Amino acid sequence: MIQAVIFDMDGVLIDSEGVYLNYQLAFARTKNPAVTMEQLYPMVGATKKDSWEVVERAVNNGQTWEELRSEFRKKDIYEEIDYRKLYRKEATEVLNTLKSEGYKLALASSTHLELVERVLVENGIRDLFETVVSGNQFKKSKPDPEIYLHTASCLGVKPEECLAVEDSTIGITAAHRAGMKIAAVIDERYGFDQSLADYRLPRVKDVLEVVKQA
To answer: Of all residues in the chain, what percent carry a pLDDT higher than 70?
Structure first.
């Protein structure tokens, strides 16, 4: 029986992945105009090393992923983004309902903790989560299961008592390896493989029905 629901952030609570990819594509094309958006899709949900190795391969100009990422980060794109516009407002109702029904709530994101906290605070949902975990806290993040195993431990529940709400192949794989039930928010834009998910949801709001079945 499900005792806790663990949410990913990017692509689940906020529709941010396409915004980030547009910035990354524009940067990559300053290095190699032939880079396509499709080449960068594997960046979605990945750790900084894995995602920027995707850029390194796509650009193929002799620069390392560290050099490319360092150059990209000279411009703080996050300060330009209004996360209130990217927020899926239905999530507030979902979180409040789950909380009122006694489920423990956590967030497990590959995004660095400072930005995660900012997004949650700006959208007025930080206090709904008992635990907020960032992939930067671990040597290996998604698809390694450690982030999910750690989050379950923080909540005081077993992995099999958790429902993970994800979207990307990498995130779904991490939750699967952790032994959790998985609800995947359907997104056809980035070529995600969601075959390991137990449920596929058209909307985040559908979590309210799935959690009773899981």
So the answer is: 100
- The span from the CA of 76 to the CA of 187, in Å, is 27
List, for residues 69-99, the tens digit of each pLDDT value: 999 999 999 999 999 999 999 999 999 999 9
Q: How much is the average pLDDT of 93-114? A: 96
pLDDT, residue 110, reads 87
Q: Which of 39-48, 93-102, 174-183 has the lowest mean pLDDT?
A: 39-48
Q: Model pTM?
A: 0.92
Side-by-side strand order, sheet with 104-109: 131-134, 104-109, 4-7, 162-166, 181-185, 199-201
Rounded Cα distance between 207 and 181, Å, is: 12
